[in-house]
Amino acid sequence: MLIKELLFESTVSDDIVDDIMDIITAYRRKKLSIIPLKGENSLINYLKKLGYTVDTNSLIRLMQEPPFSDVVERTIPGDSIKLKTDIPDEVGDNQMEKSKETVEKSATKAANKAVKSGELG
């Protein structure tokens, strides 16, 4: 699904917002303030693995909208997203716990898929 479509469908939009907030929370937990947009460990690559069709320009525009405007200091077009160092309480421990659960579920799902396909075993 295209990110433009997500912005107009509130139920799906909530999904991508949650997924991106999970990434932001994971970076904050690791005390990292720059999220790369391209490359193996990039935000775009992560979102594509989750099934979103994302391009850099749409993602940068999305990062300038609430709730991301509260946590993103600036975007460097085509390169990265710089997080604010003082992020509001809304992106706190509750979001971090939710992010941890999401990551654990994703890892379990990926491991099960690898076992079923014969990659592990």
Structure description:
This protein is mainly alpha-helical and 121 residues long. It has one domain. Helix content is 55%, strand content 10%. It contains five helices and three strands, in the order H-H-E-H-H-E-E-H. It has a three-stranded antiparallel β-sheet. A hairpin with a 3-residue loop joins strand 2 (72-76) and strand 3 (80-83). Helix 2 packs across helix 5 (93-117). The longest helix has 25 residues, at 93-117. 17% of the residues are buried.
Integer count of domains: 1
What strand line-up does the widest sheet have?
1-3-2
Principal-axes shape call:
globular
Order of helices and strands: HHEHHEEH
Mean pLDDT score: 74
Cα-atom Rg, whole angstroms? Answer: 15 Å
Helix amount, in percent? 40-55%
Strand content: 5-15%
* Discrete helix count: 5
Compact description:
55% of the residues lie in helices and 10% in strands.
Label this structure with key terms:
single chain; 121 residues; 3 strands; mainly alpha; globular
Q: Secondary structure elements and their pairing?
A:
Elements: H1 3-8, H2 10-29, E1 34-36, H3 43-49, H4 56-63, E2 72-76, E3 80-83, H5 93-117
